[in-house]
Amino acid sequence: MTLETSQTGTLMATYAPAPVTFVGGRGTILEDAAGKQYLDFLCGLAVTSLGHAHPAVAEAVERQSKRLVHVSNLFGNELAEPLGHAIDRLIGDGEPAGGKVFFANSGAEANECAIKLARRFFSRSAPAGTAPAFAVVSAHGSFHGRTLATLAATGQSEKHVGFEPLPAGFEHVGFGDVEALEEATSRAGTAAVLLEAIQGEGGVVPAPTGYLKAVRDLCDERGLLLIVDEIQTGLGRTGRWFAFQRAGIQPDIVTIAKALGNGFPIGACWARSEVAAAFHPGDHGSTFGGQPLACAAAAATLEAMEAIDAPQLAASAGSRLAAGLASIPAVAEVRGEGLLLGAVLAPGIDAKAVVAAALRAGLVVNAPVAGVIRLAPPLTVSETEIDQALVILGSVLEELS
Ligand SMILES: Cc1ncc(COP(=O)(O)O)c(C=O)c1O
What we know:
Layout: E1 22-26, E2 29-32, E3 37-40, H1 43-46, H2 55-65, H3 80-91, E4 99-104, H4 107-125, E5 135-139, H5 148-153, E6 170-173, H6 178-185, E7 190-195, E8 198-199, E9 205-206, H7 211-222, E10 225-229, E11 253-256, E12 267-272, H8 273-276, H9 292-307, H10 310-326, E13 331-337, E14 340-345, H11 351-360, E15 363-364, E16 372-375, H12 383-400
Helix pairs in contact: 2-9, 3-9, 6-7, 10-12, 11-12
Bound molecules: pyridoxal-5'-phosphate.
Pyridoxal-5'-phosphate binds next to helix 4.
């Protein structure tokens, strides 16, 4: 079958795509169908952290695709175990953390696994005749995915509209509000707290200093599980392997996706081993999750990230980008860590118009919420590319202010 590029209208209208079709990419550069080049400071939403067409990842995918693309989880898998170890070591910031991993295909599936695991943990340990804890408390402004459970966990009520009734057992409190969390988790039936260290889709909003430590202490005090969603923040982007590491805490469950395969779809749910032990054969599964081809892409991605010390690159490139953004008069505030940055625009500037004008000028960024431009370039972005992006954004903002 030949696909006619002129044929449109067959895709469900869940997105309102910009009038550009990208057909190629290398490093920080994207190319459209007309051959025009763009600086990609969005990375497919914090996915291609090593840049487009990374040679080691491309080579690993090519090699594995000729050896074995897929095999069911009903059989052994020579690539999934070592990949699980690599993830466990990064969770432990270089030392084995001693946990276990379930592989999925996306961020929402990784979070779905985390929610199910939390429920299974309490349903295994509840004394006979008592109702097991099952409720998850998450934050207003959070984003955890689009499946029904992860949508229910997502603290953006406008995304819930039209999909009710959502699954029961989800509650939201103000992000950073310890007292509200204390109150919500005091209710019988609470199993877990689910948080992002930096709310990416919520507008690049970092947790206030001390918040994650206070939440960890609260969870310990009350016997609750702490799930940290590192789907957007994870794997070096914020200047640490995982953003929770800055807070000096250890979550019970960590979810990962986006950058894990540098664009190849793969997600992972890591849990400390006592928690992971709640899953027995038959409790959870995935046809594709952890298949050899996805594992090969992820293994090559992590190996390349470690070889270049990706967190360190993100930290230093992030300082340059943040300083440059802060010097643009129309930028009122710069939020975030490393290379997950939000430029908060001065009042009255339409962020969507800025995104559209930047795209026309050859810079890809987005506006996760009104008034905020998100910048998430590859961790390999060069100083020259950062400076070029700042020039484009500066002149677009000057025009639109
Ligand atoms: C923090 C966070 N969690 C979960 C998800 C959902 O990931 P996916 O779109 O791969 O299902 C996202 C996606 O943006 C995210 O940013």
